[in-house]
Amino acid sequence: MDKDNILAIVGLVLIVVLSILSARLLQRFFGKKKEKTSTDLIHQMVADAFIIAIEMVMIFVPNMAFIGVGPFSFTLLHLPVLLGAALFGARRGAIYGLVFGLGSWFKALTGANNAFDLVFQKIWVSVPPRLLFGVIAGLSFSLLRKLSKGKVNGVYLGLVAAAATCVHTVLVFADLILSTDWIWNWLTTSEAELAGGKIAIAGFLALGMAGEATLGAILTPTLYKTLTKAIPSLRKLDAEKTAAQPVIREEIEKENA
């Protein structure tokens, strides 16, 4: 069995393990959720369909989810994952992150923008980092909500979104370095003439990461606040998750009456 097949199996096993660990973490740190009514389930299904539909549109519209800049591609597909994770937590974040990863894999297989995109044709490079990103983002937003004990501040939402975006970039490139021979060999070579190129590429990637993080920091709290104010079911969910004061609950009940 060659290395590619071994890594493919390892990647798929890693997806399953990460899913199980995310469920365990949720149960351990955030307790059991109250049983949902049929209406709650319908609302959740509609919200899931909405977030996933955004991801699918971005994936299939050229230069929307993945934007080629020189030899690299930067992504905007982390934005709906951040929004969904902020609204619904790590379990949903894992689902949206999985869609992100599978979309990246499919896009690399069918329409790579550059040579660098070809490495994402390996499922263990495309999927596990994005799945883990969704879980980490959801856990981070849930922890922020738990610590705030009230209305979540948009600035903190933005900071968590930016940090989660940076974690996503680190996860992707850590996966690339560990699983792609030529990248590992290029990074570990001691040839002096390559030092300047390494620094230039590192700076370019850091700039791209900063851009992705800035977009996440701006759009995530903006969309979060807009949606929770505009949609009563999301506003109710937000009040419950942030342990809102009875006054907020009464206002919601009056609006829904």
Q: Can you summarize this structure?
A:
The chain is mostly helical and 257 residues long. It has helices spanning 3-30, 38-60, 78-88, 90-111, 123-148, 154-179, 181-188, 195-230, 232-241, 246-256; strands spanning 66-69, 72-75.
Shape: globular
Beta-strand percent range? under 5%
Low-confidence stretches: 243-253
CATH class type: Mainly Alpha
* Tally of individual domains: 1
Describe this structure as you would to a colleague.
The protein has 257 residues and is mainly alpha-helical. The protein has a single domain (3-256), classed as Arp2/3 complex 21 kDa subunit ARPC3. Helix content is 78%, strand content 3%. It is built from 10 helices and 2 strands, in the order H-H-E-E-H-H-H-H-H-H-H-H. The protein has helices spanning 3-30, 38-60, 78-88, 90-111, 123-148, 154-179, 181-188, 195-230, 232-241, 246-256; strands spanning 66-69, 72-75. It has a two-stranded antiparallel ribbon. Helix 2 (38-60) runs antiparallel to helix 3 and helix 3 runs antiparallel to helix 4 (90-111).
Feature tags:
257 residues, mainly alpha, Arp2/3 complex 21 kDa subunit ARPC3, two-stranded antiparallel sheet, 10 helices, 3% strand
Helix and strand topology:
Blueprint: H1 3-30, H2 38-60, E1 66-69, E2 72-75, H3 78-88, H4 90-111, H5 123-148, H6 154-179, H7 181-188, H8 195-230, H9 232-241, H10 246-256
Antiparallel strand pairs: 1-2
